[in-house]
Amino acid sequence: MNEGNGSPDVGALQRGRDMDELERRCLASIKEGLDQHRDACPMTPRAVYIAGEVYERFGWTNQAVCGVPVRPEDDRPVEWFRVDCPGSARGVEHHAALWLAEEAVRAADSETVAPLSVNVA
């Protein structure tokens, strides 16, 4: 059983039913990501978010990985997961992409209005 919230750890699923290769790889990636999070962030993870279709396919309803609840997130790409903690920067990818696009426009604008250097000999 999971620590405190009554839902079994996904590791227990391995003992209770067969897992396909994709599910095993996904579980291993999430465990590795949680380990990396614990090494890099002082905040305790609140949840791991995976794509809704993956959540349903694996039947991970009310499950946890390493004591962290697994939840569906419809806008999450199938290959990605997100560790949510009090220090999370949800949506930062979108804001970073906007900033990079704006920087590219500014750089292009500055190239078109830059004064030409003419050497007169």
Short description:
With 121 residues, the protein is α+β, with helices and mostly antiparallel strands.
How are the SSEs ordered, and which strands pair?
Blueprint: H1 10-16, H2 21-40, E1 47-51, H3 52-58, E2 64-65, E3 68-73, E4 81-84, H4 92-113
Parallel strand pairs: 1-3
Antiparallel strand pairs: 1-4, 2-3
Description of the structure:
The chain is α+β, with helices and mostly antiparallel strands and 121 residues long. The protein has a domain at 10-88. 46% of the residues lie in helices and 14% in strands. The chain contains four helices and four strands, in the order H-H-E-H-E-E-E-H. It has helices spanning 10-16, 21-40, 52-58, 92-113, and strands at residues 47-51, 64-65, 68-73, 81-84. The chain has a four-stranded mixed sheet with strand order 2-3-1-4. The longest helix has 22 residues, at 92-113. The chain starts with 9 loop residues before the first helix and ends in an 8-residue tail after the last helix.
The arrangement of helices and strands along the chain is HHEHEEEH
* SS strand fraction: 5-15%
Shape: elongated
The helical percent reads 40-55%
Supply the key terms.
alpha+beta, disordered N terminus, 4 strands, 121 residues, 46% helix
